[in-house]
Every structure is written in C-alpha cells, then in structure tokens.
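hey m, so remember when u said the tokens were messed up on ur end? i reran from scratch. heres the input so u can diff it against urs
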Amino acid sequence: SGIQVDQALTSEMKRYPSEDVFGALAERAAWSGVKERRMRLAARIQRAEHLARMVDAKVSEEEARNWFEVNQSAFSGVFEDHQIAIIDALLVEKREKAWKGFRIEKLRRYAKGKIDLFEEVLFKEEGK
C-alpha cells in the first residue's frame, strides 16, 4: 500500500546522514527520481510479503543471540541493541534460501514437462 511505501521510504532515508546523500546514492544506482524509488521499494515490500506467505520461517532469540556471539566483533554494544535487526536479517536469509529451493524445484518440474497451476500452494503444503 502507499502508506507502507511511505513508511519504508522514510525509514530508508533515515539510514543516511541526509536526504542529499540518499539522493546521490539513488542517482549512482541510476534511479530516476522519487517515483522510481517508490516503485522499487514497493516491489521489495511485495516480494518480502510474498516470501513471508510462501515460507513460514522463524528465528528464535537463541538463534539470533548465537549468531551475534559469533559475529560480535562487527558490532558495538550488546545483543539487545541489535536484536531486531539481526532477527530480521536471519529471517530474510532463511526465506531467501527456501525461495531459491522453490525456484530450483520449479525449474526441475518444467524440465520434466510438469507445469502446475497450483505449484505455489503445493510448495507451501509440501514444504520443499
């Protein structure tokens, strides 16, 4: 939705020291103006939502804490300072891995001449 994109754009812009820096990086990425930035963010949000529906992935606090302990030298502060970002990143990683598996299986099925109209539902049910 437009509200989600507005929130995501505001959040992304806050990650950079100024709007000028954000704009300069967008130009370097060859993004033509605010309309394209919004479109790209909307696509990323849509993909993340699709992955969330397709892959029921979870990351426990213990899993995130273990990851933090292994990579602690890359962070300042304590686990709690970074917990939300770490859980989010690990969740994205799990979903991406599962999505890759889905795409590979989809290609295998196509190669065998099997095209399923309901492949996404079957994937979700079979958990492959």
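this time it looks ok to me. The helical segments are 2-14, 19-28, 33-54, 61-70, 79-111, 119-126. if urs says something different then somethings off w ur setup not the seq
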